[in-house]
Each structure stands twice: as structure tokens, then as C-alpha cells.
Amino acid sequence: VFPSSAFSFFCQTLLLRVFHEVEQAYAVWPMPQQMSQSTDRYPINPQLLAFSYARDSAAQSGCSVLDAAFERYFNLIFPDFVGLSNIWSEPKPFTVSVKVKNGECDGFPDEGSNESYNLSVSAGQAVLKAESVWGALRGLESFSQLVYQDDYNLYFVNKTEIEDFPRFQFRGLLLDTSRHYLPMPAILKTLDAMAYSKFNVFHWHIVDDPSFPYQSRNYPDLSSKGAFHPMTHIYTQSDVKRVIYHARLRGIRVVPEFDSPGHTQSWGKGQPDLLTSCYKGKVPSGTFGPVNPTLSSTYQFLNGLFKEVTSVFPDSYLHLGGDEVDFTCWRSNPNVQAFMAKMGFGSDYTKLESYYMENIVNITAALNKTSIVWQDVFDYRERIPMDTVLEIWKGVPADYRAELGRITLAGYRVLLSAPWYINHISYGQDWRNAYTVQPQNFSGTEQQKKLVIGGEVCMWGEYVDATNLTPRLWPRASAAAERLWSDEEKTSSVDKAFPRLEDFRCTLIRRGIQAEPLFVGHCKHEYSGL
Amino acid sequence: AALLGSSAPGWIKKQALAPLTVSSVNTASDEVALWPLPQKFQTSVDAFRLSSASFQIVHAKESTAGPSCSLLQNAFRRYYSYIFGNGRKHGKNLENVFDADLAELQVQITSADPECDGYPSLKSDESYQLEVNQPTAVLKAASVWGALRGLETFSQLVYEDDYGGQNINKTSISDFPRFAHRGILLDSSRHYLPLKVILANLEAMAMNKFNVFHWHIVDDQSFPFQSRTFPDLSHKGAYHPYTHVYTPADVKMVIEFARMRGIRVLAEFDSPGHTFSWGKGQTGLLTPCFSGSSPSGTFGPVNPILNSTYDFMTRFFKEVSTVFPDAYIHLGGDEVDFSCWKSNPDIQKFMDQQGFGQDYRKLESYYIQRLLDIVSTTNKGYMVWQEVFDNGVKLKGDTVVEVWMNNNVDKELQNVTGSGFTAILSAPWYLDYISYGQDWKKYYTVEPLNFEGTAEQKKLVIGGEACLWGEYVDATNLTPRLWPRASAVGERLWSDENVKDVGSAYDRLVKHRCRMVRRGIPAEPLYIGFCPHEYSGN
């Protein structure tokens, strides 16, 4: 056979000498907490790259999460690998050795998951150490981004040391499958891309006014009457399982949202008497408002639904919504008025909403789940358990900063999504706005700042479906991902982020994610779909 | 509304063709959403069934075109598969609510020359008549170009019932475009657009009856057009000399693909500004900028004072004029920055010699004038951006001026047409400017002829273009960003000016976008809702 290792070594040396100008810091997105690199680079031969479990790793072969990740990352690192050996490449093995302390491989990521990892790349090997498999996944992602191809398509990795951990434990992305139905491939692909940006929570805003695609085991009419189409525009139990499974393998939690008492028009179609009947004068107008909070049948139903939902979705959090409740229908209904009088609420309908939310938060608590609710619930001063998480979605920076101060002062944990409503598009580089958010820049004690557990990028679905979701999400969501993972001081310059994000978007394209361009320019491998 | 409920004999004669009425009572015809709306349109509730096994699109006996007309043969096949899907089977419809089957669509070309092998032009006759009646539908058009438009309309008339069967209602249509030039501009310089994306968008253009692909093929950022005469232009000026270029074969393919759909390919080679990428492969073409008394190492617009510039342009446009068969070439001429010219002592000297003083617009005009003379020798007409007209360059009578600046559009149209030049409008239709919400309504409600002018002047506005500049657009997001927003422009340019109700347009456009999705075009949603067949492309 032609190539001898001596010849190959000669070529290698030649390439190094002639093309050393290609050297650049091979960036990782989001930026690791600590990273040092040298210009020393090591060739990687796809034939001879091996992922392996370190001898002293608690997880060993058979660990579902890591076995699957090894296969996945091999393909991500070598996108055009066809099994043929490249005669020009170095016939030296390269080993990625993974060691985790905690050998749990069959669980689900949760709020307590440790995602930290250390990665050390040197000649012929990368050593990845993590507390848990979830941290190992983050480390594998970073490693995959360190590997690059030169102009001769040979693979290299530079000598690198990384010590990394997330700034915030909750880094979420919201998809809305009610305003438009998102087919399964669109959701699964989004989960793939989330992992590339180290997002770890998929907030599934699964139902809302326009449609109810979740197929319930106990209440099948909800989707058979409330979905856009009872057969083609639903998520069956096995679809949901598949999403959860796909997410778990990528270290992503799936937090479903069943938003009520507002945003529930579609629920009413399959669940008679759930919604409040609106009145025009003394007669029902035929239209319906929010969930009827005065009936015990309402709470029986919700108890049944949430019992099912919390058994289907393994995450310890359940998002209960609670936003944008319009009181006009409640006001119009004489039975609701009578209930208000009986409860001594006067004409303060926020008290009625509080009453409702307290009830359903308690249902959730009884099911051993933590509730997330939108900020409206806090604003109405409801008595909710202290472990409830509030999510801020309203306002300009001054508003959400003040709200961050108020909620954390009251001792609640909080998520920030107000500055990351990326369904709002505009001309130009609006990723810069998402990037420069400072989630902990509000007046409050250190203790208060710690109550900011993270944030979410929200892609509401009014104008988004499978045709345009992916390019609208990426790489704009990646800007927020770096804010949520990386050190704020080290990533304070949006201009320094620009070339890194440009590179990263080309990486996404190489991986089949149709991430849109930041500005004029090109990727070596352009997107080849439509 | 003239809803026709009976199929009595003399059906057409009894009812004068009422313009712009869409039947809406019958649920079946609710499924039908024609876009852009035909000029004259009449339909009844009488429905016929189309059998995928036996329905055919054929040449009428009287047609001047026959099976040797490959343009139509291809179109027949294309529209058959749009109507029936690719090989989809459906069971027999058990409920016999139909009078009968529609057995075939006969296409009859009436001119002596059907133009099967020709190229569409500004003067092409795109009008057609369509009569759908049992057992045969007849589509009549003077040339293949009208037949293509009629085939699209026919395919839009077919709707699917709840059993998956294909149906069409008895219908009579007489249609023609309001404007002759209905264009889409794509920019393949700011980002390279793979061939696949360009071809898919030509498909989508045909679905919306657009007839001009304005190919803004090169600009400052890159020069992907591979020239035979000057191969260095793309070799050095493209983003990548092999993967990010359009070879002569690629260009041919685009032109033929467009021709098959009745679409002209109007190439733009913009100069003297917007030419940074040209300089990489053509030394000496661009003006060296000076910093004080020495060259700064940077370059400005094309150097208008050198004979070598005009020699180059002569040879280059000679090639371009043979590569692109269209009768027009777009020469650009927009946004020339004078600062580099001002800095260059040789240019200053030339300005003095020519007596231009400090008026650099005169220098620009001098350049454009010479360029136009060069292009004239190739027997092509030319199109230019509005600055060329604004700066008083002497233009040939058949020059088309493209109005793109969104301030004083009406005044500009008044001036251009007042000077006797034809104009096309793109100012209100820069679709690269995105915003949250339903901005298609803004594009839809534009009335191109709202400026003050004589009837004669209004006739000189021959159309418009939706422009999707490429700063923030590439293959990843182009198609959903363009469609269905450009469809709004498509209807404005095709349909009668009285077709302007946004509410009824919304209902039709929602269905039309689902139709595009069904045909594989990832057209984005207008608002909340769903398509029976969602996009499954990724």
C-alpha cells in the first residue's frame, strides 16, 4: 500500500509549515468558562478516532446516553465520512476518553443536574471528565466544535484545556405548537440544534387558544375536537414519548405548558362546561371566555388532566401559564358574579384569578411537581408556594429589571424571557439585542441575583410554522444561549462575538440546521435544501 | 355577486361575464382560491370529477402547437402532477354527487406561430380564455405564454374533496395581465444562492404568474458569474472559485428552466458602483483611491477615465448579450459614491479637461453614456436604476427606468413617464425589509398608478418588481421570506386594479400559500392556522 507513515509524516510537516496561517482560535459556542489553546495541532484520522470510557469512569459501555452520544458526535465531527481511508491523513489513533463520576445513565436531566466538565486535548487524545453524563454531553459538544478541517479536508484539533460549567441552570427554548402545528421532524431537529448551543430545557407550549394537539389518554376529545385536525395535527402519546426520549439523550428537559385559565379556547371544544359562558345582557352570547373557576367540575377535570400530564412528562416542573386573562367574560356571567359575592372578592377579578391559580398550583404541588407560571400570577399577589418559579415575559429592560427585583425580593425563583421573544423579527442584526441582555443587572442583593435561575428564548407561533421556524430560530437563539451559559464579562463584546457566531452558524449548516446568515458572506458548505 | 346555480343551456350567454366575482356560497368552490385573481371569472356550483387514471391535458385539434412543442409537453406533465400529486392514488368516490367526469383539458394555441421554441419577451401575449365544461375543458391562448398562465389557473381551479378526489367546477375565465413586467429580484452576490434555490423560486414565480427573474448576479461582495472571456472575474471575485460560481451551464439551465415557465431572465451587471468584486479579477478596472497624494490601497467605482475600461466593458457585454437571450440587460447605475473619484488626482485632471468642474454626477453620466453606447451595439435594450435618469444621462427611447427610492415615488414616476420613458416600480416592494406581522398587506395595497399624470404617462408604467436583496438572505431563509409576501405583489401586478380588498385577499392567499406548500415551496404562514398538508421538507 502506498502511504507509509514516514511519507504521511512528511506531508504533515509540509502542511504545517506552509499553511500555518490557517491557525486561529477554534472557537466554541457558547464560550466555555475557562479555555486555553495553543497553536499545536494534532491530526485526527476518522478511521482511527475512538470514543471510550475511562477505566475509572462510573459509566461504562452500555450507558445509553453516552453510547448514543458517541455515535452522534462521530457523525457530527466527520460530516462527510464515507468509511474510506484518506491516504494523506495521519495513521495515528486518537482517543476521546470519557470519565463520569456518577454512573446514572437511565435517568432524566433535571434542575439539579450537574453539567460541568473538564476537557483536555493533547497529542493523540482528549480526556473528558464530568460529574454526570449530562456534563459529559456538554463536553462532547465542545470537543466536536474544536475539530476542524484544513484546506485539504484533513481533520485537526488544537491543544486545548477547558474547564466549563453553565452560568445558569435553566436555559430554555419555547416552541408553540398551538398557533401552528409543528410536525415531529421540526421539533426533533430543534432539539438537535438546542444541544449544539447547550440549551437544556424544551418549554413545550403545547396547547393554546387556536388548537389542542396534545392527545390525552383520559380526555381524547380535547384533541379530537380541539386540534386543527384530529388525525394529522396531533401529538400522540408515542410522539410525546419520542420527543422526551430524543431530548433526554441530549440532556434536555421537556417542560410542558398547559396554560390556563386564559388561552384555553381550544380546550372548550372537547370539554363541555370547562369554559365560562359569556353573557350578553341576561342571556348567554354563545361565546366562551377563560376556564370557569367557580365549578368544582373544573378542578376535577384539571386534577385528572394534570395527573395524566405529570405521569407522561417526567420533568419535575410543570408550566401552568396564568397569563393574559381577560376578565370581561367573567364579569358578564351572573354565576361568576354570584361566586365573587359569596367569596367576598367584591369586583376585583384578579382575586378570582388568584383563587383559580392557587387551586391549580396546589393540585400540581400535590402531584409533587414544581409549578412555573408567567409573571402575571405574581403581579396579582397570589398566595403561591415559595418553590413556584415565575417567568418574566413583559416589558422593556427597565420594566423587566424592576420585576426581577420585586420577584426575587419576595424570595421567588425567576426565569427571564422578556428580552428573548425572538418571534419578533426586524431588519438587520437583531441577534445583538439578544446577546447584550444582562439577566442579573437589577438592583438587589447577591442572594436575590441567585434566584435568577435562567432564561428562555420564546418562539411564539403566530407567524411561524415548519416552513420558517428553523432559520428564524438559528442562530438568533444561539446569541441568548451564550448569554445563559457563558461568563458575562468574557462575553461582553458583541463585536467579538460576531465572527465566532458566523463560524458557528456555518457549523450549524454543516450539521443540517438551516441557520440564517448574520450578514453578507458565505459558508464553505452552503445549505443545500430549500 | 353573480353566482350561477343552474347549468341551463346558454349558460354563458345568459350571464354577461361579470368581472371579479368569486362564488362563495357553495362549500366546494370555497376550496378554490385563485391567485392572482383573473380579470374575468365566472363559476357555477356544477362540479365535475377528474380521474387521475384517465384525465388528460392534450393539444386541441385546431391548435397550432402539437406534441413537438416540448414547452407545452413539459407544462402538461408539470400541471398534471400538481393536480394529482406525484403518483398519489385515491379510491373511487362512492357518493355520486357529480354530473360527470371532466375527461380532458384541450389546449389550443391560436397564433400561426405558437412560439414553442422562443423566449418570452416584454411584448409576449399572456392572455388566455378558459372554459371548463363537461366533458372537455378548453384553454385558448394566442401563444404558449398565455397557455402557461391558463394552465396555472386551471390547476388552481381543481380542489380536493373530503374523499381525496379531485374536482373542478364549471367555470369561464377570460384573463390577461394588467402589467407586462412582473418581476422578482434575487441577489446572488451578497450571498451565493445554490442553483436549487433559484430553480425552486422560478417554480414559485410561475405559480404566482410572475414573468421576469431579475438576476442581480454580481455586486461588491462577490462575482459568481463565470465569464468565458474573463474567467478571472469569478475565479478571483467569487466567494469560492468552484463551489460559489454559476458556470455557463448553470446559467443556461436557469434560462431554460425559466423559459419553460414563461419567465424572462433579466441579468443585471451593475456599474460603475457596486463593483468591488470585479476589481479582484480585472486589474486596473477600479479607481485607485488616494489618501493625500498617495494611493491608499483601496479601490472605488469603475475608473471612468481609461480607455481600457471601455475596451473591457465592450468585450464583457458582448459576451453577456449572447449568454442572456432577453432583449434587455440591466446596467444598474445606482448608489455611486464619489469620494474615491474625488480623491484621485488623475480623475480630477480629467474632470478639468472635460469641463465638469466639481460635478461628479457629470462624470458618472459620462461613464454611463459610454456604457450605454457600448451596450447599444449589442442590439440590446437596457434597464437602469432611477439615478441614471435623475442625473440626466441621455437615454435611448426604449430604456426602462426602475424606480427604487422610496421617497417621492409618485414624483419620480411622474418625471420618468413625463419624459417619455417606460418605468417599473420596485420602491414599495423591497421585501428584504422584514417586520413583525402581516406586512404583505402593505405590499398588496400599493397602487402603482396613483401618481399624477396623463393616461399616456400611466401606460408607460409597465410593471414592477419585488426585490429580495441578499444582505440577510441565503438558501436557508430565502424561500419562506419571499413567499407568500411576493404573492401580494404578484396579484397587484396581474389583477385588475379594483381587486384590492385585503380581507378577501387574505382568505385566498391563505389557501394559495397552502397550495404552494403542497407543491413543495416552503411558503411561510400569514397568521395562525394550518394547512391540510403541512410542509415536511425538513
TrEMBL record, chain A:
It comes from Pygocentrus nattereri (Red-bellied piranha). This is Beta-hexosaminidase. The active site is at E324 (proton donor). PANTHER family: BETA-HEXOSAMINIDASE (PTHR22600), BETA-HEXOSAMINIDASE SUBUNIT ALPHA (PTHR22600:SF39). The keyword NADP does not apply. The lineage of its organism: Eukaryota, Metazoa, Chordata, Craniata, Vertebrata. Transmembrane segments: none annotated. Its EC number is 3.2.1.52. Belongs to the glycosyl hydrolase 20 family. One of its GO terms (molecular function) is beta-N-acetylhexosaminidase activity. Keywords: Disulfide bond, Glycoprotein, Glycosidase, Hydrolase, Lipid metabolism, Lysosome, Signal, Zymogen. It catalyses: N-acetyl-beta-D-galactosaminyl-(1->4)-beta-D-3-sulfogalactosyl-(1->4)-beta-D-glucosyl-(1<->1')-ceramide + H2O = a beta-D-3-sulfogalactosyl-(1->4)-beta-D-glucosyl-(1<->1')-ceramide + N-acetyl-beta-D-galactosamine; beta-D-GalNAc-(1->4)-alpha-L-IdoA-(1->3)-beta-D-GalNAc-4-sulfate-(1->4)-alpha-L-IdoA-(1->3)-D-GalNAc-4-sulfate + H2O = alpha-L-IdoA-(1->3)-beta-D-GalNAc-4-sulfate-(1->4)-alpha-L-IdoA-(1->3)-D-GalNAc-4-sulfate + N-acetyl-D-galactosamine; a ganglioside GM2 (d18:1(4E)) + H2O = a ganglioside GM3 (d18:1(4E)) + N-acetyl-beta-D-galactosamine; N-acetyl-beta-D-6-sulfogalactosaminyl-(1->4)-alpha-L-iduronyl-(1->3)-N-acetyl-D-6-sulfogalactosamine + H2O = alpha-L-iduronyl-(1->3)-N-acetyl-D-6-sulfogalactosamine + N-acetyl-D-6-sulfogalactosamine. GO terms for cellular component: lysosome; membrane. InterPro entries: Beta_hexosaminidase_sua/sub, GH, Glyco_hydro_20_cat, Hex-like_dom2, HEX_eukaryotic_N. Hydrolyzes the non-reducing end N-acetyl-D-hexosamine and/or sulfated N-acetyl-D-hexosamine of glycoconjugates, such as the oligosaccharide moieties from proteins and neutral glycolipids, or from certain mucopolysaccharides. The isozyme S is as active as the isozyme A on the anionic bis-sulfated glycans, the chondroitin-6-sulfate trisaccharide (C6S-3), and the dermatan sulfate pentasaccharide, and the sulfated glycosphingolipid SM2. The isozyme B does not hydrolyze each of these substrates, however hydrolyzes efficiently neutral oligosaccharide. It is found in: Lysosome. The keyword ATP-binding does not apply. GO terms for biological process: carbohydrate metabolic process; ganglioside catabolic process; glycosaminoglycan metabolic process. It comes from the Eukaryota.
TrEMBL record, chain B:
Its EC number is 3.2.1.52. It is found in: Cytoplasmic vesicle, Secretory vesicle, Cortical granule; Lysosome. GO terms for molecular function: beta-N-acetylhexosaminidase activity. Gene3D superfamilies: Chitobiase/beta-hexosaminidase domain 2-like, Glycosidases. The keyword Zinc does not apply. Belongs to the glycosyl hydrolase 20 family. This is Beta-hexosaminidase. It comes from Pygocentrus nattereri (Red-bellied piranha). The lineage of its organism: Eukaryota, Metazoa, Chordata, Craniata, Vertebrata.
